[in-house]
């Protein structure tokens, strides 16, 4: 409880007058009533669910605008102001006692409070309507050991508005958190990079840097119990494959129950989807075998140390290059792409034979497939002339509608016939056909040149030559930096924002490709551009389609929904980082974020289902809210290029480190000098940082903190003379991470790091905290420059992974901030504005004004700090709303920290030389937390509430002309227990009748009719059947697959049906189109053609060895027509039996030797099967005549035939 006191103001301190407002609505009346009486303090059990009997209804009535982990804020300002204060100024300046978190908090534009979280009484409740400063401090400032705080004006609006959070985002669908955002530090070597789903088996597969893992979607609402891998404690349970090199691409083979993966080591692996029958191996030990790889005793991420499953078949596809892309064609072949434009086709016959071998014959099986490949690049190269570019084949798409394959590099497209493997067309992003080129050997990438920047030291006297050197050498310094930058970017594409980043096929047959500038291009099946449109400026990372909808994921984290014509239907922020992959399963589309988190979004979104789920989950907010508390110590010191003794570091930091969980230290003037600053500026341009002096400080501060035993270092960043580093207690390791660094120079030309800021962004209990170490412009009169330095740092500081990070995200981050012209996009909120807590520390260089040296020394000796505070430039500028808008500083009760003579003890050590610099509080610590208003309790709406418990200067340290300062915070953090919330989500889906009804409606499949259930083949004629959409309101998507083929048996027994990969068609059968979209009440024609005799080939090491003609008249096939809607993967199936009228009797025609290959034509052949050319070989004249019959007008009309 707050202490009351009637003591008068002392020490000459000024007084502030606080006039209570007249409440103008019921909300303020309730607030005034609540603040007029001191409520009883209620105990909170941390890390436990809050009581359901608490004030949940009041908090849920508050405005909910932001999710917990995303970077978005409300467009409207929620700043509050006193009645006597100009409301446009936002939060007014002045000392205000730390007020308590109230039982209810209200957002209103006409009242302002500024407080800490400890006292239990509102300033507005003063009985006499006014209060002196010292009375306010003594009466309200001592609650729970916290300090009174001074709050700068200008907060609460624009970029200085705090990001309001909420348990449920009101402007996006409630996601199903399959895998909550894991800390980056827990994912070393196991980041997820690909995603695929099997709707029939209800499985979600992900390719990781360490292999493969799979989620059973039926168990997605369950928890691990004891035995989760570190970083996956709140993830839905999953199983893992044996450790393998990074999986870069995946392809789903539903026919054989296999997932095919391409890996960085050049191997292709397959994994059985039926995990019950898959071969298993014991779970490997966790990394390091020290128990840190799991929580609760698990060894490898499976529940109760479940064994991992082995691959079914694996072979070496490429010798020294990775498998970058994969696709399974309409005929069941696996195609793979690698570096330098190398494309290989793997015939399914060889794969099927290898899969049939026993595990003991695994080596033989791999060798059989390895040598059976077809080198498609050589296949279309004649006389060293090839139309294919020698660039990495990054993407591959099987067009099942037309039996084609698209292979893509960053800048070009190639179109192939899936059946004949013929290259049909090569064209650029503008649609222009590429001409054939000489296929010269690909030269290895040239190493980056090294440039040594040498700066000769000045021969002039150091006392007056340093600044003069800077002024005369500025152009030389900038030139050196530019030279290094040019070398670093040598050979890169200037048109980097116009590359292909994703490709997919919509269900209407159109091909969609996304560009890194946000544009989306639609192509028809022949590679002709249909249209280009753009709904977002960020890079397109992935595209997925179902029915009449298409989903697009962007590098900004945005997910957009469009119709098949490209019209934007909806969009929302899916993740706080790039959405790199998507997969559809059941009634959800799953998105994989760059940080490894996976979320599921209802396919009906946005829609009524979202509103019901959001409301129900909000009502259960207290069940998944967890409260945490952490003490944070922040220290700042301008070390004046010196070094400190162990005793000084212990006095500064070590003496109180035992009571804190997180330590952040900022240093200024670690190392100065023209040469050092020039080299540092040049190194920054190529991503290099640090110095020997900086490392010395980091190491020795670590020793003072008992690093390795009590603390572990979480991150650091150095910019020339500026340094910041952070340590976390080892017990907090699972909750502190995702460290990102940033640097903003403010020196000469905003390019040199003698002045500026360095920052760290750290995720603490799922909340973003930013710490920035600064050094602003010097000299008494440079107030405006100091204000400008802060503004520049606050607006431009952009956090990135620390230098040397192994995670590659440069291309992703590059395209988040450029538009089509390469210019910055519309202004967005700075990174610092979107943090839950921001702490600025450092040598701000604000001085005392209107006072002489002797007067200042007098006041210091009398400890009249209250009078000196009135002369503080920083306080005056904050009060005017010109700097540190809305930020807070604890009451200063220590002497000015500048300027001292080195090694001079006590207050007598102030500068007494010729210049006699006036003592000043240059070294400061300021902060803001999540409070949009001062009266706010810690909750999911206001997740970080801090209070200053200590703010001191260590006067006994004498190694510098500045004294180090130290500030300690007590921080309350509200976070979401994602496991509990996911279980609540599952309970709502299971028990809520309204939700169950909506989900049932979303599984609607349009009624359809297929005109036949049996097709008789004869005389190689085209046969047409029809699919009709009987629904009058919804489009129907159809997909035609081949369940398998069989060979007739003479004894009349039922033959075995053998499927090809991914239910591909046999090579003797063509079905066009094999998928598409049918409008309501309309009908589509499907054409089937077959060949009585088909030429087969056998390749060894990419070279054709044998060929033969196969009689297909004894073959039968089962065709399946699957019908789906647009909001679920539920299907209705029609089956068609395909057989010949008469058995095979005559011998096949003779085969001529293969003819010489010719370069492929760039003219697109007709869609009609009769005009397709085969580059394999020419068959007999009779066979050519059979091909001519493809265009025959004698077509079997099966329109009137209906399924019973």
Automatic annotation (TrEMBL):
Feature: compositional bias, Low complexity: 110-119, 1158-1168
InterPro entries reported in the protein's UniProt record: Beta-prop_IP5PC_F (IPR056454), Endo/exonu/phosph_ase_sf (IPR036691), Ig-like_IP5PC_F (IPR056455), IP5 (IPR046985), IPPc (IPR000300), WD40/YVTN_repeat-like_dom_sf (IPR015943), WD40_rpt (IPR001680)
Record-annotated Inositol polyphosphate-related phosphatase domain positions: 628-977
Region (Disordered): 1-58, 83-129, 278-303, 1141-1191
Amino acid composition bias (Gly residues), ranges on this chain: 289-300
Superkingdom as given in the UniProt entry: Eukaryota
Keywords per UniProt: Hydrolase, Isopeptide bond, Magnesium, Metal-binding, Repeat, Ubl conjugation
One protein family per Pfam: Beta-prop_IP5PC_F
SMART domains noted in UniProt: IPPc, WD40
Skewed-composition ranges (Pro residues): 1146-1157
One example GO MF annotation: metal ion binding
Cross-referenced Gene3D superfamilies: Endonuclease/exonuclease/phosphatase, YVTN repeat-like/Quinoprotein amine dehydrogenase
GO biological process per UniProt: phosphatidylinositol dephosphorylation; pollen germination
Cofactor: Mg(2+)
Annotated PANTHER family: INOSITOL 5-PHOSPHATASE (PTHR11200), OS09G0500300 PROTEIN (PTHR11200:SF145)
Family stated for the protein in its record: Belongs to the inositol polyphosphate 5-phosphatase family.
Protein name, as recorded: Inositol polyphosphate-related phosphatase domain-containing protein
Native source species: Aegilops tauschii subsp. strangulata
Taxonomic lineage of the native organism: Eukaryota, Viridiplantae, Streptophyta, Embryophyta, Tracheophyta
């Amino acid at each position: 409880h707050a202490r009351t006191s009637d003591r008068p103001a002392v020490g000459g301190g000024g007084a502030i007058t606080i006039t209570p407002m007249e409440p103008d609505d019921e909300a303020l009346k309730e607030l005034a009533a609540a603040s007029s009486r001191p409520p009883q303090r209620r105990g909170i059990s941390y890390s436990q669910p809050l009581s359901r009997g608490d004030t949940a209804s009041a908090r849920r009535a508050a405005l909910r605008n932001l999710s917990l982990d995303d970077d978005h804020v409300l467009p409207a300002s929620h700043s509050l102001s006193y009645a006597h204060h100009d409301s446009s100024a936002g939060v007014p300046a002045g000392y205000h006692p730390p007020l308590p978190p109230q039982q209810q908090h209200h957002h209103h534009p006409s009242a302002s409070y500024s407080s800490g979280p400890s006292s239990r009484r509102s300033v507005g409740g003063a009985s006499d309507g006014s209060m002196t400063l010292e009375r306010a401090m003594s009466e309200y400032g001592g609650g729970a050991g916290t300090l009174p705080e001074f709050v700068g004006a200008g907060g609460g609006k624009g970029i200085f508005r705090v990001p309001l959070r909420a348990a449920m985002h009101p402007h996006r669908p409630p996601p199903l958190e399959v895998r909550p955002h894991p800390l980056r530090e827990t994912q070393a070597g196991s980041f997820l990079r690909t995603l695929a789903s099997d709707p029939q088996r209800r499985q979600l597969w992900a390719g990781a840097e360490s292999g493969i893992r799979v989620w059973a979607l039926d168990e997605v609402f369950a928890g691990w119990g004891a035995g989760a891998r570190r970083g996956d404690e709140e993830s839905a349970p999953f199983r893992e494959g044996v450790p393998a090199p990074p999986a870069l691409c995946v392809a789903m083979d539903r026919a054989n129950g296999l997932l095919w993966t391409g890996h960085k080591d050049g191997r292709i692996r397959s994994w059985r989807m039926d995990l019950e029958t898959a071969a298993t191996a014991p779970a490997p030990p966790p990394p390091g075998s020290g128990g840190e790889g799991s929580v609760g005793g698990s060894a490898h991420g499976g529940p109760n140390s479940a064994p991992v499953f082995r691959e079914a078949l694996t072979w070496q596809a490429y010798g020294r290059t990775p498998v970058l892309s994969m696709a399974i064609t309409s005929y069941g072949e696996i195609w793979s792409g690698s570096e330098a434009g190398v494309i290989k086709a793997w015939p399914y016959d060889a794969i099927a034979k290898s899969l049939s071998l026993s595990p003991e014959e695994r080596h033989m099986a791999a060798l059989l497939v390895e040598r059976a490949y077809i080198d498609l690049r050589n296949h279309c190269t004649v006389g060293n002339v090839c139309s294919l570019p020698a660039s990495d084949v990054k993407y591959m798409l099987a067009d099942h509608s037309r039996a084609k394959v698209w292979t893509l590099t960053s800048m070009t497209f190639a179109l192939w016939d899936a059946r004949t493997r013929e290259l049909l067309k090569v064209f650029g992003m503008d649609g222009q056909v590429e001409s054939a080129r000489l296929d010269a050997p690909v030269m290895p990438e040239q190493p980056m040149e090294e440039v040594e920047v040498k700066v000769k030291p000045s021969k002039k006297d150091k006392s007056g030559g340093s600044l003069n050197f800077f002024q005369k050498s500025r152009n030389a310094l900038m030139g050196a930096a530019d030279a290094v930058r040019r070398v670093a970017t040598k050979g890169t594409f200037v048109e980097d924002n116009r590359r292909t980043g994703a490709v997919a096929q919509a269900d209407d047959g159109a091909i969609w490709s996304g560009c890194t500038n946000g544009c989306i291009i639609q192509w028809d099946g022949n590679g002709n551009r249909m249209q280009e449109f753009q709904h977002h400026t960020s890079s397109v990372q992935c595209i997925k389609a179902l029915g009449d909808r298409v989903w697009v994921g962007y590098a900004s984290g945005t997910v957009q929904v469009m119709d098949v014509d490209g019209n934007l239907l909806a969009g929302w922020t899916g993740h706080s980082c790039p959405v790199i992959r998507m997969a559809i399963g059941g009634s959800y589309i799953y998105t994989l974020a760059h940080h490894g988190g996976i979320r599921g979004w209802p396919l009906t979104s946005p829609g009524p289902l979202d509103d019901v789920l959001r409301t129900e989950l909000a009502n259960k907010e207290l069940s998944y809210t967890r409260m945490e508390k952490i003490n944070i110590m922040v220290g700042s010191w301008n070390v004046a290029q010196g070094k400190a003794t162990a005793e000084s570091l212990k006095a500064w930091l070590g003496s109180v480190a035992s009571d804190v969980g997180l330590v952040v230290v900022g240093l200024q003037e670690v190392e100065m000098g023209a040469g050092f600053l020039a080299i540092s500026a040049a190194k920054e341009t190529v991503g290099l940082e640090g110095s020997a002096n900086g490392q010395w400080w980091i190491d020795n501060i670590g020793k003072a903190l008992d690093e390795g035993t009590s603390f572990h270092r979480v991150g650091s960043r150095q910019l020339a003379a500026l340094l910041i580093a952070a340590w976390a207690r080892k017990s907090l390791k699972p909750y502190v991470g995702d460290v990102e660094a940033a640097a903003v120079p403010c020196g000469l030309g905003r390019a040199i790091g003698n002045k500026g800021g360095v920052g760290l962004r750290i995720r603490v209990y799922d909340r973003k905290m930013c710490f920035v170490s600064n050094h602003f412009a010097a000299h008494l009169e440079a107030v405006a420059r100091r204000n400008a330095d802060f503004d520049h740092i606050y607006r431009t500081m952009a956090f990135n992974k620390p230098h040397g990070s192994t995670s590659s995200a440069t291309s992703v981050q590059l395209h988040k901030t450029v538009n089509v012209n390469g210019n910055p996009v519309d202004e967005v909120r700075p990174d610092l504005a979107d943090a839950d807590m921001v702490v600025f520390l450092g040598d701000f260089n604000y001085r005392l004004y209107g006072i002489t040296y002797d007067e200042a020394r007098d006041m210091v000796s009398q400890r009249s700090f209250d009078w000196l505070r009135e002369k503080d430039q920083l306080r005056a500028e904050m009060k005017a709303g010109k700097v540190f808008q809305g930020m807070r500083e604890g009451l200063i009760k220590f002497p000015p920290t500048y300027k001292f003579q080195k090694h001079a003890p006590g207050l007598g050590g102030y500068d007494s030389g010729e210049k006699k610099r006036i003592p000043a509080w240059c070294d400061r610590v300021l902060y803001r937390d999540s409070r949009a208003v001062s009266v706010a309790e810690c909750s999911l709406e206001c997740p970080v509430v801090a209070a200053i418990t200590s703010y001191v200067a260590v006067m006994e340290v004498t190694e510098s002309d500045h004294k180090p300062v130290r500030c300690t915070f007590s921080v309350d953090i509200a976070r979401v227990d994602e496991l509990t919330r996911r279980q609540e989500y599952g309970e709502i889906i299971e028990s809520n009748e309204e939700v169950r009804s909506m989900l049932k409606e979303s599984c609607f499949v349009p009624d359809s009719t297929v005109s036949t259930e049996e097709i008789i083949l004869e005389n190689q004629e085209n046969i047409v059947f029809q699919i009709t959409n009987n629904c009058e309101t919804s489009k129907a998507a159809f997909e035609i697959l081949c369940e398998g083929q069989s060979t007739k048996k003479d004894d009349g027994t039922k033959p075995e049906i053998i499927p090809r990969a991914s239910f591909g068609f046999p090579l003797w059968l063509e079905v066009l189109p094999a998928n598409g979209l049918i409008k309501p009440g309309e009908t589509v024609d499907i054409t089937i053609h077959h060949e009585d005799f088909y030429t087969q080939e056998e390749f060894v090491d990419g070279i054709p060895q044998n060929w033969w003609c196969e009689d297909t008249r004894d073959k039968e096939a089962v065709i399946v027509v699957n019908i789906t809607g647009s909001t679920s993967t539920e299907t209705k199936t029609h089956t068609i039996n395909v057989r010949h009228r008469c058995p095979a009797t005559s011998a096949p025609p003779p085969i001529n030797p293969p003819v010489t290959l010719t370069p492929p034509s760039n003219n697109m052949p007709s869609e009609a099967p009769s005009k397709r050319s085969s580059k394999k070989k020419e068959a007999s004249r009779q066979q050519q005549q059979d091909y001519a019959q493809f265009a025959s007008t004698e077509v079997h009309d099966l329109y009137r035939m209906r399924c019973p």
